[in-house]
Design brief:
This protein is of the alpha+beta class and 155 residues long. The chain has helices at 14-25, 81-89, 98-113, 150-154; strands spanning 34-36, 46-56, 63-73, 77-79, 117-127, 130-138. The strands form two sheets. A four-stranded antiparallel beta sheet has the order 2-3-5-6, with helices on one face. A two-stranded antiparallel ribbon has the order 1-4.
Length: 155
């Protein structure tokens, strides 16, 4: 018996179809390796930035581009940079929403290195006239001091 193809509004959303297609194309997410913190007795910040983050829009399948900034205060472990780069590149063929991916990166890195504090900022390029900046923090919002926006300083 042949499967009947549904049409019309009840056929499933374009979002669900695009997300399912992106999941089929998605590679396995790379592990983020760590190494022992050389000075665990001291609080210090490590700031990592990549301007080469890419993924797919889960609705249209078009490429999305962004800058991912990771700032953390290590405890006993530090993030190894090459494996972090490979992890961030593993999103390339996945359909992801900006809000979801920023929080996913935060959760993955917290599990990997168990830092004292961690901040992930996803600054995504303009599409359709809109840009998005998503900030996620561990252990709670306000753990890091944020620089004052340029407009507030110049006003």
């Amino acid at each position: 018996m042949a499967k009947r193809r549904e049409t019309g509004k009840g056929a499933g959303s374009r979002v669900a179809r695009a997300d399912a297609a992106a999941r089929r194309r998605a590679p396995r997410r790379a592990a983020v390796e760590t190494f022992p913190n050389p000075t665990p007795e001291r609080d210090y910040e490590i700031d990592i930035r990549t301007d080469e983050w890419t993924a797919l829009c889960p609705i249209t399948g078009q490429p999305d581009f962004g800058t991912i900034r990771i700032t953390y205060v290590p405890d006993l472990l530090c993030l190894e940079l090459k494996s972090l780069k490979l992890y961030l590149h593993s999103f390339r063929n996945r359909g992801v929403f900006h809000e979801a991916v920023t929080n996913e990166i935060l959760d993955h890195l917290v599990k990997s290195c168990r830092p004292r504090r961690l901040l992930v900022v996803g600054d995504f390029r303009v599409r359709g006239g809109l840009s998005t900046v998503v900030t996620a923090e561990y252990p709670e919002p306000g753990s890091f001091s944020r620089p004052e926006p340029e407009d507030a300083r110049n006003g």
